[in-house]
Design brief:
This protein has about 120 residues and is mainly beta. The protein folds into two domains: about 80 residues, no CATH class; about 30 residues, no CATH class. It is about 5% helix and about 35% strand. It has one helix and six strands, in the order E-E-H-E-E-E-E. A hairpin with a 2-residue loop joins strand 3 and strand 4. The longest helix is centred in the first third of the chain and has 4 residues. The protein is elongated and about 60 Å long.
Length: about 120
C-alpha cells in the first residue's frame, strides 16, 4: 500500500503479510518446529478460506511541528494517489522470477478540501 503526491513522491508506504500458522499450533506434548511454536508466540495471520478480510491503514496526511510553543500542522498534499496491491508469494522473494503473482491492484485518487480552520 503506497500513498503518493501528485508529482509521484511517496509519503507513506506500508505492507501486511499473511502467513499460515503451523499445524500443531502449540498443542500436545511434542515440540513441533521449536519453542516459539510451543509457547504460542506465533500470531495467526493466515487468510481463512471463504472469509473476507479487511485491513485498515491510517495515512498521515500532515506533519506536525512546534512553532512559538504552538502545535502547527502542515498538509503534505491536498491531492494524492493511493495504490494497493495484493500479491501471492508461496516462497522466496517477490523479485524471484516466477515466484510471486499479483492477484489484485487498485488505484484511488483522493483529496482533502482546501481551507478550513
Amino acid at each position: 500500500m503506497t500513498a503518493k503526491t501528485a508529482d509521484g513522491k511517496v509519503f507513506y508506504e506500508n505492507e501486511k503479510i499473511y502467513m499460515p500458522v503451523p499445524q500443531q499450533m502449540g498443542r500436545g506434548d511434542k515440540m513441533g518446529r521449536g519453542p516459539y511454536e510451543k509457547s504460542g508466540i506465533l500470531r495467526d495471520s493466515s487468510l481463512p478460506p471463504l472469509k473476507t478480510t479487511r485491513e485498515k491503514f491510517t495515512i498521515p496526511v500532515y506533519t506536525e511541528a512546534t512553532k512559538d510553543d504552538k502545535l502547527v500542522r502542515t498538509i503534505i498534499a491536498n491531492d494524492f494517489t493511493v495504490d494497493v496491491e495484493v500479491w501471492y508469494q508461496p516462497y522466496g522473494k517477490k523479485d524471484d522470477e516466477g515466484n510471486a503473482q499479483k492477484w489484485f491492484a487498485v488505484t484511488k485518487n483522493m483529496s482533502i478540501a482546501k481551507g478550513g480552520k
